[in-house]
Amino acid sequence: MQIVDLDFRLPEIDNQKSTIYNSLMGGLIQPSPVSTEERESTWRPVLIGVAIVVVVVGVIVLAMREEPRPRTGPPPYAAKLQISDLKMSAAESFVGATVSYLDGIVSNTGDKTLTHAVVRVVFKDDMGEVVGDELLPLHILKTTGPYPDAVDLSASPLSPGQRKPFRLTLESISAQWNHQFPEMRVVEVTTK
User: Fold this and answer.
1) Predicted TM-score (pTM) of this structure
2) What is the CATH number of domain 80-191?
3) pLDDT per residue as tens digits for the range 91-110
4) 1-29 burial by CB neighbour count: b if 16+ within 10 A, else e?
5) I need a labelling partner for 109 at 20 to 30 A (CA). Which of 34, 53, 70, 85 fits?
């Protein structure tokens, strides 16, 4: 009988890299060899993208920023306009919404003809806090027909010493409004 010498050698395992025990997988795994340069190169596009987004948002914010308008008082001729006999009413519009009206009399006690006026109407709640602030054009009520019609002051100017009924149309009023008459100030006037 002849004896054959079989040389079985197991391949050597390179164990120079550290191993990490993975408890979920139940065994040892070899981490992938990622160099520091490769790690930095994967973060570089992300950081560039974040920087671009920050710059774009900053440009948009600066472009949309408005210069604060200086607060000016009412025009001098506004003191020559007197508002009286205020009445409020409400009606349902064709689409089912409630429209409120603020009617009254405007008197021109000055020496010029009024062709345009804007009124600031401020509604408050029970604690005196503002719950509505609207700028509305003053419309003159024309009663030459079956129904009163609100027309612009340019179509029906208010001469010196003249009084005319007016109407302000309010599309919505806050539910927190205290149901008192709102504060009204003439803030814009055009005369001729």
Assistant:
1) 0.57
2) 2.60.40
3) 887 777 788 888 899 999 99
4) eeeeeeeeeeeeeeeeeeeeeeeeeeeee
5) 70
